[in-house]
Design a protein that fits this description.
five-stranded mixed β-sheet; disordered C terminus; Beta Polymerase, domain 3; DNA polymerase, domain 1; binds zinc ion; binds 2'-deoxyguanosine-5'-triphosphate; 15% strand; seven-stranded parallel β-sheet; binds calcium ion; Beta Polymerase, domain 2; single chain; 42% helix
């Protein structure tokens, strides 16, 4: 599926460059739409091309299909290369900074000759940006923060990007003759929101064959190091991957060690020392007597064995950050973490009624395929024009359509909205319309740059509406692209507890919002949570494990998440509409 992403990215870049060039909105949007369609495709685009089905993808006509075929065959797209060559180099890099879109990039280049991050930083620091048309001191400060963020993120990739790459590699290696056990380790196993590199662990009787298979895998672009027990490569996806081969007697110890985190390992090693033991990647050892007696391995074959020998239950990888998990394990107070199988339905999905790629029927069918009991359609609200927000009259019509369709869709389809929170905290639809919906997510999509006080009271006011069930992506961050807006998250959590509003763990790979530490704060204070993928296509319903992983990193149990409930109980929590008094208040 990495081809899908590469092609979508090319189309998006073409759109950006066309925008810089002042091209017609029509052409620009055609590329943007194509980028979204390819990104949301549930199938490998190469497979679609192979059966001649490209032009059946909505938004892909003959000309775009030819560009896809060209890219699949040659790895380049001439239209893009030509376009990029006609612009100053570096503009694309500038656009990595959140405040800098195509127009600003061009402005910076034309007025100040800026084409690198360093130049942009120098100009911002010198106060020269604010002198440009439409720019001010706040933009300048935001640019500086943006540059810092781009640099901070450099080299780290979002979990949602790294996870499928790792899974593919692990599945490839799993079937290599001689491979016995295999697991991902490192940050990817801990489901950390960004990943520096992939760590994979294998046991084998034929390490050389495994190393051969690894270093010659088709997705490897460069071999950094090839050893007999450890090799490192760079993958086409731009990620580094380390493979280690160990003997079965040390597998558990190595898995424990290379899963980390470093902080957890340090704490665990200290615990071993206090017990008169030694812990390393080869095992847990009782030291010899110093007079020639060898160290004796007391555990190492399994991870659980290591923890058991240290007097602890096995600790789930997502908790291993030395944030109290060892103490909780010792006291028998580890949470029973939520699992993907606990999720009974999707509560946040967009359709072609707003900016989604697929129809309600398609989303419903995909939700059936996920094994869900229900799915809630939550398209954007009327004032969010860029996301083709649904006018109130249309939403009334959608409510009727969904309720009349419901029997024929093979799954309970709820109709809701992702309703914009206006700058003053009011909602984007009239109360009587909101009251008629099954579920209301309220989200901030505009006016991010408010003071902390203003933003906090804006959001709290929205949560105080009796119609709002879920606060969507509560901090507005985009991983590697936009910092969270200024908001008092503790006040938001307290308001969630007080009003019964669930806080969303948005599972979209670029969001993961709430983030793990905020999730933990929320569940400790007793707030309800909801995990939604914010899917804009059928394929994106499969982001759910990213949200569940984030919930697990926040110590969340299934009962704390409303979409683990059966439909009847969910409806009760939502305080069912239709004139009935809302149950929860
Ligand atoms: P990343 O790759 O930056 O996303 O994060 P990790 O956690 O995957 O870190 P990585 O790849 O450098 O190392 C994998 C694991 O190996 C790490 O989580 C813990 C273990 N490890 C690596 N270096 C050390 C070390 O110096 N001391 C200890 N105790 N453990 C280490
Ligand atoms: Ca790693
Ligand atoms: Ca590593
Ligand atoms: Zn949203």
């Amino acid at each position: 599926m990495t081809q899908n992403r590469a092609i979508a990215q090319r189309f998006a870049l073409i759109a950006d460059l066309l925008e810089i060039g002042g091209e017609s909105v029509f052409r620009i949007n055609a590329y943007r739409r194509a980028a979204r369609a390819i990104e949301g495709l549930s199938e490998d685009v190469a497979a679609v091309a192979a059966r001649g089905g490209l032009t059946e993808i909505p938004g892909i006509g003959k000309a775009l299909a030819e560009k896809i075929v060209e890219f699949l065959a040659t790895g380049t797209m001439r239209a893009y290369e030509d376009l990029a060559a006609s612009f100053p180099p570096g503009l694309a890099t500038l656009m990595l900074v959140p405040e800098v879109g195509p127009k600003t990039a061009l402005l910076l280049h034309e007025h100040l000759g800026i084409s690198t991050l360093d130049e942009l930083e120098a100009a911002s620091a010198a106060g020269r940006i604010r002198e440009l048309p439409r720019m001010g001191q706040r933009t300048e400060e935001a640019i500086l923060r943006g540059i810092a963020m781009v640099r901070r993120q450099a080299g780290r990739r979002p979990l949602g990007f790294a996870l499928p790459v790792a899974a593919e590699l692990v599945e490839r290696l799993r079937v290599v003759p001689g491979v016995k056990q295999i697991s991902a380790a490192g940050s990817i196993r801990r489901m950390k929101e960004t990943v520096g590199d992939l760590d994979i662990l294998v046991t084998s009787r034929a390490p050389a064959r495994v190393m051969d298979a690894f270093t010659t895998s088709p997705e490897v672009s460069e071999v950094l190091e090839r050893g007999s027990t450890r090799s490192s490569v760079v993958l086409d996806a731009g990620l580094q991957a380390d493979l280690r081969v160990v003997e079965p007697a040390a597998y558990g110890a190595a898995l424990q060690y290379f899963t980390g985190s470093k902080e957890h390992n340090v704490a665990l090693r200290e615990r071993a020392v206090r017990a008169g033991l030694k812990l390393n990647e080869y095992g847990l050892w009782r030291p010899g007597d110093g007079r020639g007696g060898d160290d004796r391995r007391v555990a190492g074959r399994t991870e659980a064995g290591i923890y058991r020998a240290l007097g602890l239950p096995w600790i789930p990888p997502e908790l291993r950050e030395d944030q109290g998990e060892i103490e909780a394990a010792e006291a028998g107070r580890l949470p029973r973490l939520i699992e993907v199988e606990d999720i009974r339905g999707e509560v946040h999905a967009h359709t072609s009624w707003s900016d989604g790629a697929d129809s309600v029927e398609e989303i419903a069918a995909a939700a059936v395929a996920m094994g869900y009991e229900y799915v809630c359609i939550t398209d954007h609200s009327q004032s969010l024009k860029i996301a083709r927000g649904v006018p109130a009259a249309d939403l009334r019509d959608h409510i009727r359509q969904v309720r009349s369709l419901s029997d024929r869709l093979g799954i309970a389809v709820l109709i809701g909205t992702e309703c914009d929170i206006s700058a003053d905290g009011t909602l984007d639809y009239p109360d009587d319309l909101l009251a008629d919906l099954d579920l209301v997510i309220a989200s901030v999509h505009t006016r991010f740059r408010m003071s902390r006080e203003a933003m906090t009271s804006r959001i709290v006011r929205a949560m105080e509406s009796e119609h709002v069930d879920i606060l969507g992506h509560p901090t507005g961050r985009l991983l590697g692209a936009r910092d969270p807006y200024e908001v008092d998250i503790e006040a938001v959590v307290d308001a969630a507890v007080r009003t019964g509003t669930a806080l969303e763990i948005n599972a979209a790979p670029e969001r993961l919002d709430l983030k793990d530490t905020d999730v933990r704060l929320a569940r400790e204070r007793g707030a309800r949570l909801a995990i939604g993928t914010d899917a804009h296509s059928c394929a994106q319903l499969r982001y759910m494990p990213l949200g569940v992983g984030t919930a697990r990193r926040g110590w969340v149990e299934a009962r704390e998440v409303i979409n683990t409930l059966p439909l009847a109980s969910l409806r009760e929590v939502l305080g069912h509409r239709g004139g009935n008094p809302r149950g929860r208040r």
